[in-house]
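Form 7-S
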Amino acid sequence: MLNMLRVENLSVIESATVEFGEGLNIITGETGAGKSVFIGALKLLLGERFARTLLRDEEKKLVVEGLFSGDFSHLTGDTREQFEIEDEVIIRREIDSAGKNRVYLNGKLATVVQLKEVAEGFADIHGQHEHQRLLNPACHIEFLDAAVEQKPKDAYLAAYGKYLEKKKKFENIKSDIAKTLKEKDILEFQLNEIESMRIDPGTDEGLEEKIKMLSHMEKIREAAATSLNYLKDGEINASELIGNASSLMSSVADYGAELASAADSLADVGYKIADVTAFLEKMLDMQELDPEELNRLMDRKFRLANLMKKYGGTLDEVIRHGQVIKERLDNLFLDEDSMSRMEKEVTALHSEAQKKADELNSARKKAAEKLSAEIIKNLSELELKNSVFKLEFFPQDELDELGGVRTEFYISTNPGFPPAPLARVASGGEISRVMLSLKDVFAESDRVGTLVFDEIDTGISGKTAKQVAKKLGSIARGKQVIVITHLPVVAAEGNRHFHISKGTDGDKARTDVKALCDDEREEVLALMIAGEKTPSSLEQAKELLTGRGGNA
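Output:
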């Protein structure tokens, strides 16, 4: 449950702290006082995104903090250990005007993703958005599935996933075979074009250098001959001079470390000159330029460049492209037995998925009957007597993630009229009562510890409002419930009552929150009843508080 909510610098709230309790918590206040700001603050604690326009003072950071208590065994052991979670979690979010967002869980820095993981199931917030979900038939199967055991849902999704994977693979192969047949001649030409080159990246990537050498062989041979004359063959040459110097320095190397180092360096130079002269002699021994060899290499270079332009920027990519083409052509020769076997596998997996879908939908129909009966009972208690409520099932042409069916809520609140789609026939007040009925039905099985209703009493009054108040009180006996309301009869039902008033701070609107004692509750309820405190309205307020459903 939510024990405490603290808000700083959010919209009309400069600073406010509310300590909620078990049972039914009521929030009242005049329009525009900032009641819904608390809902926004709670949503931030649950991981929703923040709009900068909600900053009250852009020079200060926004802070929302909440203390939740309860059983957190559903969280992974690693998460509980990381944030030291036992029976309490303190969530804190800080956001500045630049949008910099910091999240703390029990004082430890966390990400928004971690916040959402931890806070999932802490609170369920119902307002106009949730009403819209109730009016959207596409969401009705989600409501129903909340009343269905997880096992048949998991079994179906596992079977459907296997079927879908195999079906996709089979259809891709069939599609590729059909496409490949149309392109067979082109693909065979491309494969032959690539394989005929017998590409060797290690060798072919040196073509450019080899072509350069062959193209300038005469100049290279001339440079090699002259260099050899300087290094070895001339009357005065480097090899002889370096050799003499090396011998002289070697003879005195024992007289000092630096002399020995100089002798070693000269010896190294001698070895290097010997290596260079051997290479130059090899160059001179090469045959004269072979125009045919040069033309062959240049032609290969051109053809390889053309392949890279067509099939990839590198020779490795060209080779990979050839391998892909080969695999596609090989698939053409899959024997009929292989294709038939794969098709049978797809059919078998579809049958298994259909079986699991039938089991799931059978469980759904049983749950729908029970759900409808309980909702009808609740609607009767909420002054919608003789109502008919049921879930219609609409089979789909194909299996899908939802089991090949759609459901829609049908309702009739007037005797003699057949049930029709909820979205078409229900009024605002009826929608609120259907939603309240659903939440009452799911209250015991739902892991959510805190239910928040933002003006669930829209469009109702009189005896109906009293019944809604009792229903909220009934739900609150098993869960913490927080209700924002304009109705005094609903407000009187609460275990705790918080009143929000607005004023001004300089030229800015501000909001104050106060937990009311019994006398203050009477005054607030009197104002809600008559718009002013009169002996009559005070007496009515007192009667409401005295007669509320066991919440004295």
